[in-house]
């Protein structure tokens, strides 16, 4: 049977600032059953696992997404009170909003282990069968980008989600036999950035679906302030707001910008991040006041200066900026459309009046009315 990518998540030790509320004698949640395979986060406190360090460990620590947190708390609390395995959970939304973190939190709140894989890794039904057969009762199975699962694995998952059973085919041709394999009750947490690509039968088998939304500046400021305390960086409140306002509503980008601003402050000043240091650092790293980077501005300039504001096809824009069409369409366009700088029409992409003004140009009279 083909090997399959598997990871068992071990909840990391709380940060020293939060250690006062941690009971060392309490059993560790999510501890792997194979001691030799378990990873102790205390042995890896370097820069490489900074993302794990910044992840909140419980629903109470999770910032933002209040509706999702409240709904998920009801689902998990109700299941724990009844002593049953919670319904399967589907988390959908753009990248960087905390879907993987939420899956880890679900396992932590339930006090169980988390097994992690991704849709592209499950190419055959046998890959999924190997992972499902290793689950213990109450485990949480997290499948990232679940919409990219191969169809044979997805069809096997239907029966596993509903009946906690799979049928393993042994042999080939007329002599092939089906062997039923009972599974321990588990909770599947699926994450997808394209919920529309999920098949109807798969989507209907999730008992709870949560749509992760972009963050506002206030919540992102809390994310930046919390992350700064964890990594030991001194930051002024107005500097945290400045970083948050340029983070495209995404915590992952906010944490990344904070680390780059920290580098600038350590090299060019005493390490303290004030407003001037934050603004100067973001200029160095090509992030403007709206969160647009070099590639975003290159797309706008190609659209406006090169083609008079459009309409222009995405392939033409990609050639103009030296990128693949998929990069322009999947990386740049979503934020530019959400920021109101590009409109997608049947004839191609069109720059709005806001895009002209952002580049310091006077918009044509025909689109100036879109501002009013």
Automatic annotation (TrEMBL):
Signal peptide: none annotated. GO terms for molecular function: DNA helicase activity; hydrolase activity. Residues 289-372 are annotated as: Head domain (RuvB-H). It is found in: Cytoplasm. Its EC number is 3.6.4.-. DNA binds at residues 344, 349. Residues 216-286 are annotated as: Small ATPAse domain (RuvB-S). Residues 31-47 have a biased composition (Basic and acidic residues). It comes from the Bacteria. SMART domains: AAA. Residues 1-51 are annotated as: Disordered. It catalyses: ATP + H2O = ADP + phosphate + H(+). ATP binds at residues 54-55, 96, 99-101, 162-164, 205, 215, 252. Mg(2+) binds at residue 100. Residues 35-215 are annotated as: Large ATPase domain (RuvB-L). Gene3D superfamilies: 1.10.8.60, P-loop containing nucleotide triphosphate hydrolases, Winged helix-like DNA-binding domain superfamily/Winged helix DNA-binding domain. Its main location: cytoplasm. CDD domains: AAA. Residues 85-218 form the AAA+ ATPase domain. Has 3 domains, the large (RuvB-L) and small ATPase (RuvB-S) domains and the C-terminal head (RuvB-H) domain. The head domain binds DNA, while the ATPase domains jointly bind ATP, ADP or are empty depending on the state of the subunit in the translocation cycle. During a single DNA translocation step the structure of each domain remains the same, but their relative positions change. HAMAP family: DNA_HJ_migration_RuvB. Homohexamer. Forms an RuvA(8)-RuvB(12)-Holliday junction (HJ) complex. HJ DNA is sandwiched between 2 RuvA tetramers; dsDNA enters through RuvA and exits via RuvB. An RuvB hexamer assembles on each DNA strand where it exits the tetramer. Each RuvB hexamer is contacted by two RuvA subunits (via domain III) on 2 adjacent RuvB subunits; this complex drives branch migration. In the full resolvosome a probable DNA-RuvA(4)-RuvB(12)-RuvC(2) complex forms which resolves the HJ. The RuvA-RuvB-RuvC complex processes Holliday junction (HJ) DNA during genetic recombination and DNA repair, while the RuvA-RuvB complex plays an important role in the rescue of blocked DNA replication forks via replication fork reversal (RFR). RuvA specifically binds to HJ cruciform DNA, conferring on it an open structure. The RuvB hexamer acts as an ATP-dependent pump, pulling dsDNA into and through the RuvAB complex. RuvB forms 2 homohexamers on either side of HJ DNA bound by 1 or 2 RuvA tetramers; 4 subunits per hexamer contact DNA at a time. NCBIfam families: PRK00080.1 (NF000868), ruvB (TIGR00635). This is Holliday junction branch migration complex subunit RuvB. It comes from Corynebacterium felinum. The lineage of its organism: Bacteria, Bacillati, Actinomycetota, Actinomycetes, Mycobacteriales.
């Amino acid at each position: 049977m083909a090997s399959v990518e598997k990871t068992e998540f071990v909840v990391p030790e709380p940060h020293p600032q939060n250690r006062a509320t941690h009971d060392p004698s309490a059993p560790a949640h999510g501890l792997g059953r194979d001691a030799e395979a378990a990873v102790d986060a205390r042995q890896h406190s370097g820069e490489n696992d900074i993302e794990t360090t910044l992840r909140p460990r419980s629903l109470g620590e999770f910032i933002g997404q209040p509706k999702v947190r409240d709904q998920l708390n009801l689902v998990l609390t109700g299941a724990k009170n009844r002593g049953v395995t919670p319904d399967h959970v589907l988390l959908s939304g753009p990248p960087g909003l905390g879907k993987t973190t939420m899956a880890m939190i679900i396992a932590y709140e339930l006090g169980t282990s988390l097994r992690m894989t991704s849709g592209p890794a499950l190419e055959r039904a046998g890959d999924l069968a190997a992972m499902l057969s290793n689950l213990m009762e109450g485990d949480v199975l997290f499948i990232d980008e679940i919409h990219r699962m191969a169809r044979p694995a997805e069809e096997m998952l239907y029966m596993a989600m509903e009946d906690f059973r799979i049928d393993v085919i042994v042999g080939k041709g007329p002599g092939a036999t089906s062997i039923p394999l009972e599974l321990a009750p588990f909770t599947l947490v699926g994450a997808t950035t394209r919920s529309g690509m999920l098949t109807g039968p798969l989507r209907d088998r999730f008992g709870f679906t949560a749509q992760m939304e972009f963050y506002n500046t206030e919540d992102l400021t809390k994310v930046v302030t919390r992350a700064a305390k964890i990594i030991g960086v001194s930051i002024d409140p107005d500097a945290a707001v400045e970083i948050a306002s340029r983070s495209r509503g995404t915590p992952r980008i906010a944490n990344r910008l904070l680390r780059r601003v920290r580098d600038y402050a350590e090299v060019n000043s005493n390490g303290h991040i004030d407003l001037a240091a934050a603004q100067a650092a973001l200029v160095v790293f090509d992030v403007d006041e709206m969160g647009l980077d070099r590639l975003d501005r290159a797309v706008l300039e190609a659209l406006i200066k090169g083609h008079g504001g459009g309409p222009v096809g995405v392939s033409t824009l990609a050639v103009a900026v030296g990128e693949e069409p998929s990069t322009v369409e999947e990386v740049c366009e979503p934020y530019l459309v959400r920021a109101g700088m590009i409109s997608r029409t049947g004839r191609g992409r069109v720059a709005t009046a806001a895009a002209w003004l952002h580049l310091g140009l006077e918009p044509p009279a025909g689109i100036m009315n879109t501002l009013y």
